[in-house]
Design brief:
The complex is a heterotrimer of chains A (391), B (98) and C (309). By secondary structure, chain A is α/β, with parallel strands linked by helices. Chain A has helices at residues 9-20, 35-45, 59-71, 82-87, 89-97, 122-126, 140-155, 184-191, 217-246, 271-284, 302-308, 330-339, 362-378, and strands at 3-8, 24-26, 52-54, 76-80, 103-108, 133-136, 163-168, 176-181, 207-208, 253-256, 263-268, 289-294, 296-298, 314-319, 347-353, 384-387. In chain A, helix 10 links the parallel strand 11 (263-268) and strand 12. In chain A, helix 1 (9-20) crosses helix 8 (184-191) and helix 10 (271-284) crosses helix 13. Chain B is of the alpha+beta class and 98 residues long. In chain B, 10% of the residues lie in helices and 19% in strands. Chain B has 2 helices and 4 strands; from the N terminus they run βαββαβ. In chain B, the strands form 2 sheets. A two-stranded antiparallel ribbon of chain B has the order 1-4. The radius of gyration of chain B is 18 Å and the shape is elongated. Chain B starts with 38 loop residues before the first strand and ends with a strand. Classes of the chains: A alpha/beta (391), B alpha+beta (98), C alpha/beta (309). Chains in contact: A-B, A-C, B-C.
Chain lengths: 391, 98, 309
């Protein structure tokens, strides 16, 4: 039976980990994800789980040990943030290329420098081309639910790719929210047994991590890309299964009051919650405002986004990171590319916001919607904008 | 996966192995390195005392051994490094031009 | 099993011919003898840091290792094998794996002394039941003979070349064996590729001692050392006879010297056959050879003291 509790994001994810009971967890502490391996090592040392915990000496080694353990046939998990994710950049790509179904909690925190421990999306956005699936969570419930579903998605035979479940540092990781837990048996039943056809400790010995000449590398990568392509279907299938046992619906993104929306924002993470408040207020005034909250960023659901934004006349895409490309943020680029050629002359603009944990207020979101309305009347607009920086 | 189609440089991406995994371990012996040679060791069975030092130090596992006796040299793989000849105290291995 | 070559020849090699290492490379000799020490009924997982051995033994679609093998990156062989060994512990306890496995990692001096040091150190400290074998040929050979912290003082490498102003590497090499022994692991040893019996016996001890073990093997690279391939194993023996590379073990913290040369040869005997030291014999560079001799003597005396000799 579902259990109503009040937990922080880190505690909820650590609980999910406990209920899943992977074979190996290798993790290194970094704010604000530290509590995940902390809670988990307490579970291990209390004998609540039989998981083997490796207290590695760095994040690079955390991911390397995860790759080794996964290749050996174990179900493997880890957690990190910010510079920890940056430090594991090299084995991150390797984990995806070697088709390791690892699940990682990526607790979003700004990348240095200057050093900042607060939330933004520069860390996971920096890893968007690593070949990992990226699933973002708005709140504690979503972080817990996404983490459980991630196990099934990553281990699916048509996918076999690692998944990072992202949630906002401090805001979601440390903020205590009401949520619903599944029973441990329900979780174990949902994730099932871990199976590998070929693994280092299997009956057939294998070699993994070859040197590829230029006659072979490209085909291996194309096969890897297919895993990401296949993931779209699998994500929806797993979500449908999950809905059956929880009643909670998950998709590539959440559409909030989008049916007849003329102006909309596209946003990731906890700021979606703040923005929904603004949408409600505007709707009360009769303004046809809507919001799309991205859940799955990798693989990017381009045709589905384009369909959802079909009738929107002006949209602002909010990025909690800067690409320093001088042309807008990464989510903006994906969305704009998705809607290209679909619908005439939409206003599509980029806002870089919330960097380094800069507070995102209802007023600033109101500004964005007001700006969209102005752009429609003015007929021209700035594509690359900043929100909330003192200028 | 193990129909060896994946060996081919014509192998399409749909048929190749995920992550480049190889499940036929030890298959390197199918790759012949013998054509690397510029010098070739010739083994003289009469002079050979079966001390096994050539076998011990061959970096290419190319000294053929059977029933605790040296049998000859695997020319499919021997790279002609000459370590065997250098080890032999009985003049049983001579290096000649390939 | 008797330690004689005829008996050992009955054991199948666990590394095959057909690998792409240079003709006369010392590294496959090391791999062959380390794996020879495995009991036939024991399975193994081999981990490898990026380097000559790795690119040459696992070049898609061929692999020269008969046992399971994993390579992930250059600096993380220690961490990678830690993950494998931990998974083994977990899966064995769950009854999902029935066979007995041993875990052996190979890394060159590049992937061990330098970029891989942190990962190796942590693996030793965490007490994983693995063996780490460093095939030390004294430079980053795979990328073209660049200096490592294992490169001997005075050697000419491509990043410490002998030039008009600076005659080769100006730093003394690191004593990694002692550094790793200081992690209080149950077994650490120094050996050479040219003495099969020493290498074999130490490998057997390392593999079958419970806990982390480390073996440092002086391995010849005729390319990087610029010496005659056929004479390379004799050159390695000179490293032992000049006390440049002593053979010893550290068992539960106790230093044991395995071989004391009856007559300690001058270091020039080790330097002379190698092209990478040729410039040291030019007039004006005598001070370099003197410095090398002094360092070798100092280290040898310190080792004798540690061994209570």
């Amino acid at each position: 039976m579902a259990k109503r509790v009040s937990l922080s994001g880190n505690e909820a994810v650590a609980t999910a980990m406990r209920q899943i009971e992977p074979d190996v967890v290798a993790a290194y502490p970094i704010t604000p994800s530290t509590e995940v391996p902390q809670y988990f090592s307490q579970f291990v040392n209390n004998g609540q789980v039989k998981t083997e915990f490796i207290p590695v000496e760095s994040e690079h080694s955390a991911m390397s040990a995860c790759i080794g353990a996964s290749a050996a046939g174990a179900r493997v998990m880890t957690a990190t943030s910010s510079n920890g994710l940056a430090y594991m950049w090299e084995p991150l790509y390797i984990a995806a290329s070697l088709r390791r179904p690892i699940v990682m909690a990526a607790v979003n925190r700004a990348l240095s420098g200057p050093i900042n421990i607060h939330n933004d999306h520069s860390d996971s956005m920096g890893a968007r081309d690593s070949g990992w699936l990226q699933i973002y969570s708005e709140n504690v419930q979503e972080a817990y639910d996404n983490f459980i579903q991630a196990v099934r998605i990553s281990e699916n035979a048509d996918v076999r790719l690692p998944v990072m479940v992202c949630y906002d540092g401090f805001i979601t990781s440390h903020g205590i929210e009401n949520m619903v837990l599944l029973e441990e048996e329900e979780v174990k039943k949902f994730v099932g047994e871990h199976k590998d056809d070929y693994f280092l400790l299997g009956d057939t010995p294998i070699a993994l991590g070859t040197f590829d000449g230029n006659q072979y590398y490209f085909e291996h990568k194309r096969l890897q890309a297919q895993g990401m392509i296949n993931a779209k279907k699998v994500i929806l299938e797993i979500a449908a299964e999950y809905e059956k046992i929880t009643g909670r619906k998950y998709n590539f993104f959440e559409k909030y009051k989008m049916d007849d929306a003329e102006i909309a924002i596209v946003v990731i993470g906890s700021s979606a919650g703040t923005s929904k408040v603004v949408v409600d207020e505007l709707r009360e005034k009769g303004i046809k405002a809507g919001l799309i909250k991205i859940r799955v960023f990798r693989p990017f659901p381009a045709p589905e986004i384009a369909e959802a934004l079909k009738n929107v006349k002006a949209l602002a895409v909010l990025d909690k990171t800067d690409s320093f490309a001088t042309t807008g943020g990464p989510l903006f680029k994906e969305v704009r590319s998705a809607v290209y050629g679909i619908g005439d002359n939409k206003v599509v603009k980029s806002y870089i916001y919330g960097l380094g944990g800069r507070d995102v207020t209802v007023d600033s979101i109101k500004e964005v919607y007001a700006g969209l309305q102005e752009d429609l009347t003015a007929g021209k607009y700035e594509i690359y904008n900043y929100l909330g920086v003192r200028e | 996966m193990s129909d060896k189609n994946y060996y081919s440089t014509e192998c399409k991406w749909q048929d190749t192995t995920p992550g480049g995994i190889i499940i036929d371990t030890g298959n390197a012996c199918e790759f012949k390195t013998g054509d690397w040679r510029t010098t070739k060791p010739i083994w003289n069975s009469e002079k050979c005392k079966n001390c096994f030092l050539c076998w011990a130090f061959c970096p290419d596992m190319s000294i053929i051994v059977e029933n605790e006796k040296i049998k000859g040299i695997d020319y499919d793989h021997c790279k002609g490094c000459g370590l065997c000849a250098a080890q032999c105290k009985f003049d049983a291995i001579q290096l000649v031009e390939e | 099993m008797a330690v004689n070559l005829k008996e050992l020849s009955k054991k199948a090699d666990r590394i095959t011919a057909g690998h792409r290492m240079c003709a006369g490379c010392g590294a496959p000799i090391v791999a062959k003898w380390v794996l020879k020490a495995l009991k036939t009924e024991d399975k193994a997982v081999i981990a490898n840091a990026t380097g000559c051995m790795e690119v040459s033994t696992c070049l898609y679609p061929y692999v020269a290792w008969k046992d399971s093998y994993i390579h992930s990156a250059f600096e993380n062989a220690g961490a990678t094998i830690s993950g494998v060994e931990t998974a083994y512990n977990s899966l064995k306890k769950q009854g999902k794996v029935k066979d007995n496995y041993k875990f052996i990692t190979f890394g060159g001096d590049g992937g061990t002394y330098d970029i891989g040091l942190q990962s190796l150190s942590a693996t030793m400290e965490r007490g994983h039941d693995v063996v780490y074998v460093c095939y030390d040929n004294g430079a980053y050979m795979n990328t073209g003979i660049q200096r490592s912290s294992a490169t001997p003082f005075g050697a000419s490498t491509t990043t410490s070349p002998q030039g008009k102003a600076v005659p080769g590497k100006q730093q003394y090499r690191k004593d990694l064996t002692s550094v790793i022994a200081a992690h209080h692991i149950p077994y650490a040893a120094q050996t050479v590729a040219s003495k099969w019996k020493d290498l074999y016996e130490k490998s057997e001890k390392a593999i079958y001692t419970k806990g982390p073990a480390f073996i440092n093997v002086l391995t010849p690279c005729a390319r990087g050392w610029r010496c005659d391939t056929q004479k390379e194993l004799q050159v390695v023996d000179l490293a032992v006879e000049t006390c440049f590379w002593p053979l010893y073990e550290i068992i539960d913290g106790k230093y044991i010297l395995n071989y004391k040369p009856k007559k300690k040869l001058p270091i020039t005997e080790w330097l002379k056959p190698q092209g990478r030291f040729k410039h040291l014999f030019k007039p004006g560079n005598e001070y370099m050879i003197d410095a090398i001799q002094k360092e070798v003597d100092k280290n040898w005396e310190e080792l004798l003291k540690k061994c209570n000799l």
